[in-house]
Amino acid sequence: MTDPAPEGLRADRVSRTAGGTLILDGVSLTPRPGTLNGLLGPNGSGKSTLLRLLSGVTAPDSGVVTLDGRPLTRSGRRTVAQRVAVVDQQADTQTELTVLDVVRLGRVPHRRAWAPASAADEAAVRTALPRTGLDGKAHRHWHTLSGGERQRAQIARALAQEPRELLLDEPTNHLDIRHQLDLLDLVAELRLTSVVALHDLNLAAMYCDQLVVLKEGRVVACGTPGEVLTRDLIADVYGVAADVTPTGPDGRPHIRFLPPARS
Q1: Residue 69: left (phi > 0), alpha (psi -120 to 50), or beta?
Q2: pLDDT (tens digit, 9 = 90+) per residue, 35-75?
Q3: Are 26 and 13 a contacting pair, CB within 8 Å?
Q4: Which residues lie closer than 8 Å to 185 by C-beta, 6 or more apart?
Q5: Is 0.85 surpassed by the pTM of this model?
Q6: Low-confidence winner among 6-10, 71-75, 243-247 (lowest mean pLDDT)
Q7: CA 33, 88, 214 angle in degrees (round to 5)?
Q8: Cβ–Cβ < 8 Å for 228, 244
Q9: Three-state SS sequence of 24-76
Q10: Are 53 and 11 in contact (CB under 8 A)?
Q11: 20: exposed, middle or buried (Cβ count in 10 Å: 0-12, 13-18, 19+)
């Protein structure tokens, strides 16, 4: 009896070079279905590149990204877009789009070219708006939205795709603390298989089920926040001293950064 095909989105020993520089070196990632997985590491460690490989926007030079056991390169862009939604760091447009217009873009992978919106399309949009707290702002124009509202609109657009996997590239950048917490609360409550690149270690500890830490394109640690976020790892990867105490729910760590020692 053969084993069933692995479910979900996986990266198996993927490498990627750009401009003669090795960006990712043999990275593997296997998110469990329905979990929130954090990608950590300094700028230039390969987080955004790994997300682009997982989305199928770019292909690895070696290794393979699979969706339910099938390589993305053999799945077709439309099939992947129906399953995997992406929320980038920031989105902007000079076009006079409303929130409703943006969210409706999430249905493009489900429609044939030039086909009008179906009842299923409109139902998906009507469901996504209240899930992200935007049902009262559907007709607001994009340029009038705050940073937090724009990120929520991007997540609503992603939800309208009805994905099973959600990829987010530093979605809390440029948001104030309240909107950072609101956004990650929302992502955690979705219970999709989510992979999110983050800089804030305390936010990662609070919200993520599993963490993968990258340094110079390689995985240096993976596991639960309590397993991964140690004083030694923070010193090695980020070059800073920190106190780490298990003060959060389920012993989740809290990180307090220490000032550099003065000579």
Answers
A1: left
A2: 999 999 999 999 999 999 999 999 999 999 999 999 998 98
A3: yes
A4: 207
A5: yes
A6: 6-10
A7: 65
A8: no
A9: EEEEEECCCCCCEEEEECCCCCCHHHHHHHHHCCCCCCEEEEEECCEEHHHCC
A10: yes
A11: exposed
Q: CB-based contacts of 87: which residues, under 8 Å, 6+ apart?
A: 151, 154, 155, 158, 166, 167, 168, 169, 171
- Which DSSP helix (H) or strand (E) runs through 86? strand 84-87
Tokens 């702002």: give the residue.
137
Asked whether residue 6 carries a pLDDT value surpassing 70, the answer given is no
Buried b (16+ CB within 10 A) or exposed e, 165-204: bbbbbbbbeebeeebbebbbebbbebebbbbbbbebbbbb
Burial class (CB in 10 A: 0-12, 13-18, 19+), 5: exposed
pLDDT digits (tens, 9 = 90+) for 124-179: 999 999 999 998 999 999 989 988 899 999 999 999 999 999 999 999 888 889 98
Judging by beta carbons within 10 Å of its beta carbon (0-12, 13-18, 19+), is residue 6 exposed, middle or buried? middle
The answer to whether 67 and 53 have CB atoms below 8 angstroms apart is no
> Would you state the pLDDT for residue 159?
94
pLDDT higher than threshold 80 for residue 220: yes
Position 243 scores a pLDDT of 96
As a whole number of angstroms, the distance between CA 72 and CA 186 comes to: 28
DSSP secondary structure letters along 157-213: HHHHT--SEEEEESTTTT--HHHHHHHHHHHHHH-SEEEEE-S-HHHHHHH-SEEEE
Cα–Cα distance for residue pair 17/144, rounded to 1 Å: 39
How far, in Å, CA of 139 to CA of 124, rounded?
A: 17
Task: Count the neighbouring beta carbons within 10 Å of the beta carbon of residue 215.
Answer: 18
